[in-house]
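hey all, quick one before standup. I had two proteins in the batch that finished overnight and I want to keep them in one place so we stop losing track of which output belongs to which input. First protein below, input sequence then C-alpha cells straight from the run.
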Amino acid sequence: MPEASTLADLLRIRRANQALLRKQGAGYRGSAVGFKFSEKNRDWVKRKGQCVPAIVFFVEEKWKSGQRPKGSSPPLPTKLSAGALSCETDVVEGQFADDIPWLPSLPATGESLVQGLFESKAVVGGIPIRSPLATGAAACVVQQGNRRSLLTNAHVAGQAGNPIERPEPQVVELGETEAACLVGSEIPPKSRARWATPWDAFLESVPWIDSALVRLRPSVVAIARAGVSGLPPLQSPSALDLESLADIGRLLTSVGPSGGRSHGRLMGIAYEWKEGDQYYHADLLILGCREKTPHAFTGLPFAAEGDSGKLVVTADTFQPIGVLWGGHRLQFDSLHNQHAWCLATDINRILSGFDVRIVPAGNQPTAPASTPP
C-alpha cells in the first residue's frame, strides 16, 4: 500500500478516520499532520535518512510500561489508511512538564532587544501593546488603501472600539480595535470564503483565527514603521504547499516583548481538538529550537506569556507565515488542549479575511500634512 507523501495525503487519511479519532477518551488532546517525532531524542524519527510522514496524536499522558493512564483511551492505532494510501501515526504528550519555566532566561542580546521594544518610540512589529483585556504583541503594520493598522490577536485587542496603547515606560495611545475575529463561526457566511485556507477543505471543524486590527490614530501613523523590530525587511508572505512535505520542518523566527527573538520549526498543520461539543482547528504548530546550526530542539517554548500576537516569519527568507496566538500557557490553558507546541494562524488567512496587506519595506507610513510629528 503506497505511503502518504504529501500534506494533502495525510489530511485525507485523517479525515477518512475521523469517526475513530473522535471516539477517543478524555486523555486525547487532538491531532495534526506532520512528521513522526521522538520526544526522548528531541528530534524527528528518520528512516534511510528521511523524516517519516505521520498523523500526530496529542495526549495528556502516554502509556508507560504498559500502564494505561487514568481516563485514557485504549492504545491509539500505529497506522491509518484511506483507500490505497496509508501512513504511520505518532503519540506526543501535549502538556509541558511543570519544571519548564513560564518565561525564558534571555541572553544579554535578548534582554537588550526586549528593552528596546519597550523603550523605542517607533510603532513596529514586536512591540508590546495592551487593551483593557490583555497585554500582548504587535505583529506588524498593515494597510488597506491609505488606512494603517496594527495586526495582533483578538484575545489581546478585544472587540471593536477597545482602546489600545503601548504600556510603560513609553505610554502611547495607539488607537482602537477596528475589527476582530476569534473563531470562524463568528464570520458571516457570505464572507467565509475570504477566510478559508486550502486545508479547510479536508476538515469538518471551525478555524481558530484569533486575529484583530488596531486602527492607528493619525498622530501615531507618523511613528509607524514597516516590518518587525530586530529583523531584516519582510518579504512576501509564505504560502504552504499541500502537495509536498517541504514546509514541515522549516526554520522560523519571531520577535516578542517577552521572549525576545525566538527560533522554532514548523512541526505540523491543521491541529484539531474538541472543546465542549465543538471541534476546532489551528493552522500551524511550532516547536522551539536553538538559533544556531543544527537548530536542535530545546525544552523551551517558541513563545512566552506576553508574546501573543507576534508575527512568525521564515528564518531564511523572512517571509511572514503566521501570527502566534497560543501555546505554553499563552492565555488559552483553559481550553484544556495541548500547549507544548505553539499555535499560530496562517498569515494569508488573516490578510485575505481583513482585506489588508503588510506594509512593505521602503514604503513607510507617513502622517497627514496637518499632523505634527
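OK second protein, same deal, sequence then C-alpha cells:
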Amino acid sequence: MNKICTKCGRELDISMFNKDKQKKDSISCRCKKCLKQWQRQHHNENKERINKEHKEYYEESKCRRREHNKQYRSDNKEMIIRQKKEYYEENKKAISEQHTDYCIKNKLIIAERNKNRYDKNKVMYAIIGKEYRENNIELVKKRHQKYAKENKDIISVTSQRYRTRKLKLPATLTIEQWDKAKQTFNNKCAYCNRELPLAQEHFLALSSGGEYTYNNIIPSCKSCNSSKGNRDFFAWYKGYKYYNKGRERKILKYLHYNNNIQQLAFSI
C-alpha cells in the first residue's frame, strides 16, 4: 500500500509515514523525512519559546513525576532489583572502571562530602561501628593484624603522634619525612650502621621534652634504641660499644647540631 507525501510529492510505501490519529486514515500526510525536516526547522525558529514551555512543564510536573516514579519503584521493586543486578553482572568491568575514574577526578569533592556526612551522623556511625565490631570480633581482629603488618610505618607514626600529643608536645612527623630519614642513613641504624628492622628513635627523649618532629627522629635498631633509652646522647654514645666518630658527625649534621646545640627549632 502506497501514499503520496503532501510535502515532497513522492509516492512512498505506507511504512515511510508515521501514525497520526487525527487523520482519517490514521496516517500522517508527510513522510518521515519531510516531517523530520519540518520539526527541525520549527524547533530552530521557535527555540526560546519551546525551551521556555519545556522548562515550565518540567517545573509544574516535578511533584507529580516524583510521586509517579516513587509509586512505580514501589510496585516493581523486585523487577528493578533483578534488572540492576543483571545489568551489573553484564557490565561489571565497565562500571568498575567508570567508578575508579570518577573517584580519581573528584577525590576532593568525595572527601568533603564524606566528611560532611560523617559530621552530621557521628552518633549513628559510632553505634553501627560498635555493633559491627561486636558481631565480627575475629574478622576485625584479622583485618587489624593484616593492616598493621602491611603498614608498619603508618602504625608507628600514628601511635607516636598519639603519645606525643598526650604530653602536649608538637607531633608533626610525616611518613614522607620518616622515609627521608631512613634514606639518609641508607636504611640502616644511625647508631650502629647495622641493617636491622628500624624503629623511630627520639634523639632527645620524649620524657625530656623531645618532640615528634623531623629534627628529633632518627632511624635506630631495637637494640640501640633500648640501650639509649631516655639517656642524653652525648653522655651515652661515646661509651657505647658501637660508637663511631663518623656516624656521630653524620647524626649531628642531619639534626643540625653545632657544639652540642641544635641550630633549628625542632618543628618543621
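Flagging for whoever picks this up: The chain has a mean pLDDT of 90. The beta strands are 2-4, 11-13, 17-19, 27-31, 198-202, 217-221, 257-258, 261-262.
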